[in-house]
Amino acid sequence: MSPEERAFQERIDRGEKIEPKEWMPDGYRKTLVRQIGQHAHSEIVGQLPEGNWITRAPTLERKAILLAKVQDEAGHGLYLYSAAETLGVSRDELTGKLLSGKMKYSSIFNYPTLTWADMGAVGWLVDGAAIMNQVPLQRTSYGPYSRAMIRICKEESFHQRQGYAIMMKMARGTPEQKEMAQDALNRFWYPALMMFGPSDKDSVHSAQSMAWKIKMNTNDELRQKFVDETVPQAEYLGLTVPDETLRWNDARGHYDFAQPDWDEFFEVLKGNGPCNRERLEARREAWERGAWFRDGLNAYADKAAARRASASIAAE
Amino acid sequence: MSPEERAFQERIDRGEKIEPKEWMPDGYRKTLVRQIGQHAHSEIVGQLPEGNWITRAPTLERKAILLAKVQDEAGHGLYLYSAAETLGVSRDELTGKLLSGKMKYSSIFNYPTLTWADMGAVGWLVDGAAIMNQVPLQRTSYGPYSRAMIRICKEESFHQRQGYAIMMKMARGTPEQKEMAQDALNRFWYPALMMFGPSDKDSVHSAQSMAWKIKMNTNDELRQKFVDETVPQAEYLGLTVPDETLRWNDARGHYDFAQPDWDEFFEVLKGNGPCNRERLEARREAWERGAWFRDGLNAYADKAAARRASASIAAE
Amino acid sequence: KPAFFDWLCRMGDNTAILGHRISEWCGHGPVLEEDIALANTALDLIGHTQMWLGLAAEVEDAGRTADDLAFLRDAMKYRNVQLVELPNRDMAHTLMREFLFDAWHVEMLTALLQSGSPRVAEIAAKALKEVGYHVERSSDLVVRLGDGTDESHARMQDALDRLWPYAGELFLGDGVDAAVAKAGIAPAPGDLRAAWERTVDAVLDEATLRKPEGRFDVHRGGKQGRHTEHLGFILAEMQFLQRAYPGASW
Amino acid sequence: KPAFFDWLCRMGDNTAILGHRISEWCGHGPVLEEDIALANTALDLIGHTQMWLGLAAEVEDAGRTADDLAFLRDAMKYRNVQLVELPNRDMAHTLMREFLFDAWHVEMLTALLQSGSPRVAEIAAKALKEVGYHVERSSDLVVRLGDGTDESHARMQDALDRLWPYAGELFLGDGVDAAVAKAGIAPAPGDLRAAWERTVDAVLDEATLRKPEGRFDVHRGGKQGRHTEHLGFILAEMQFLQRAYPGASW
What we know:
- The complex is a heterotetramer, with 2 copies of chain A and 2 copies of chain C.
- Helix content of chain A is 68%, strand content 2%.
- By secondary structure, chain A is mainly alpha-helical.
- Chain A has a two-stranded antiparallel ribbon with strand order 1-2.
- In chain A, α2 runs antiparallel to α4 and α6 runs antiparallel to α10.
- By secondary structure, chain C is an all-alpha fold.
- Chain C is built from 10 helices and no strands.
- In chain C, α1 packs antiparallel against α2, α1 crosses α7 and α5 runs parallel beside α8.
- The chains are: A mainly alpha, C mainly alpha.
């Protein structure tokens, strides 16, 4: 470790925040860009599975809540791209990498939303798992990322409560609604567990990221915490977690639970999830069909600037 | 009149059929091409307002009947384009004129189909009016046209009966269904009357066309016949024809009825109908999006012919 | 009172259907800021729908709710102008449609501040805050895209030409409008036209767009329940859950 | 018996949804002959739906009709393979999807001629006449367009690549299939695979198309009621009238 690197690590160890103009190791910058960018992309792609139900929301109030939520997700994308920009990578560049498949987004969004109960399950489980990941990241070492996380977490926990409220309505509704709620839990349980990533023993970059406080907890810790919090919530809903091995372990003070099918995880990561192709195509198409729009605004801005310039020359 | 023209007219007067290879006046040919082409185009565009409800047909049987009907219309288009081809004008040429707006189709198809009852009203009134026009044309002087009309009339009267059956179900159904049925009659009554064209005193080409037996009856005769036949059918359905002046005239032995709004007729003809733009665009888009398909089939045919040719050379 | 109910449905159906169309863009916008702005506009319009249809349900006093009116009326009973139900096509059409509507909407709501019905005036005041921003945003975008590239100009002009024959329905009055105007609840639709034209002329001029020459009231009937073929498909989608699971609570 | 009912729904839902998709082309085909052929295919498939769901309703014996099954089941209760619910996109996708399905359909129906259920055998015999023609036509078009222009070739290859991961679901068996096979009613799905592959290989070869290398059973679950996001929209449209006017007769 060079003296610079050592000083950097000591700042982190003391709990200081690193700010954009300050020196940082290349690996730190790269890892952050990858992680923040991936998170930003997830917010953007994450609009799609929920957007799928906006036009079919069952009441005006539910429609308004869902719209507000999807809007928040776009907003989170914006914060995160801005945080990434402080590391010297532009939003367009990151978008290009998303669209070309060079950068990933969270695999959870490659699963389809098939019934209205999925709007509940996504809020409850997917946002719930996201929050588990994000709450500790409020204390991450990189200042802009930490501040973005603080804003995001506030809204996410609101989303999670709304999702749980939908599940409650469904689970206590008609038999058909209850069936949809159970089916949604069945479909989203394991994908939600996958959101924490493979077990730490299989995770390559974990140790360095944790030293840098880019990653605050191990994947397994977070997954356990998620299970411990979620299982009682499922019980309260009267729904059954689709895991026959699930039981409370008094000795550990935790639930024992089955691992998700990691083969499926890697298949989805490779592009063989139910909606990978459609999600990416939807974003690509939005981008391509929006080219004339972006060009138009840029051309107008150039013209307006030229007009202002010539007006100020004329005024001299 | 030249001797040729006189002989031609005498053949027609004797009730002989004119066949493709035989001499005919230019005007006869042109008028026929316009009339047959316009009729063919109407069959093609006429698929759209009914096609609009295929995916929403309320029962499997209704869906099947509607599909069969729309298929028949495409088939009629095919017969008619073939009849026009015997006059030396290709289907593609006629299609080009439809898509560029140089040739017309029946204005009735510029009205929207807004409820399922419209599937009834279109069959009952629109096909009904079409049949009024077409039955006499089975005796038209041009052989291929006459034969196409004979085939078409058989199917059309079947369609009309099916349309009437839908109206019957609706008119005798729930209050909402009855309301839809009445509303459909309200919307389609006057446009159906317009299908016979403006009053003969305002019609330019009528006299010559009638002499040539391209047109067999005056517009007003056919309109009167349609009203006389349709009013009792409406009464039987328990529906009210939207014409307060409608009453039986014992002296004339016909119904007196109000003329449609001819200003509206000419507005729709000019392109200001409810759906003119959408209908033509739908056809244009189908044609343009189908270019690669037609090109592909042509290219294959050329290759296959070349392969056959070289195979037969090799075999020599 | 039936006229008042009808009139309230017209207000609420306009915002419901326009909100629906705009919400179709969610996640598919040309740039992130636009995704956010479109979702926000849709959200505002759904909020207005809740207020207008909520009051309509009260006025009707037949035990129906705003949701019943939104989700259990078929197309023939919907009272929105045809303009708002047209397909999104591209952003040019979406924005131009919004602008033509916003320019009317802001005049209507401003006039309603003086409504003889305090409930109407109250809703108008709440909605006006948001709609003031809508018209600002859509005017601004019409100007920037109209005076942007050749392509953006052409697309905006095409959108204007296509939508123009639908705009005039906003200013056509009928018996319902006359009754509501007479009761001092709302202005006659025609009274809003001059102010609308001033806004539209000014914005189109700055946007270097040519105002179409044809009639602007070719397509009409939406206010009386005669719609385009598009509305039925909107409602099939929008109303599916309420129709498929009658009586369920969500 | 519940397995038999489920299996009949699978047969009928496949033809219902594929028929629906194909019928979306009505009036929008690339050439008149194609409009006619597509309408005709859709018509045949709706006819098969009537027979399969009619028998399903009889077997269920709960007072439901074929129309009830078609128009009053939500997506979770639909049992079609995912392949048939995918959007039409262009004619290349439409035809390739039809070909992949037809090649299975003809084998399935042929096998069903030997069904232990005389009713099933009877329906299969009726349907087979039409489906024999379907596969002839779709094979022929796949060949001609695959070996047509560069563009038609590229489009057909793209369609094949996109649809391939959905085709394998046709050959995946589960408890329902096992029970029905054991009862001698239908072949095990996997038994049809070899014949299907022979047809597909021969046609793709003649069409100069490259068979994709990836797994052909990536997308599955439709037979158990887990669909793509597309099915909900299909049903919202298809079922609207029955849902909106419960109990009405049409």
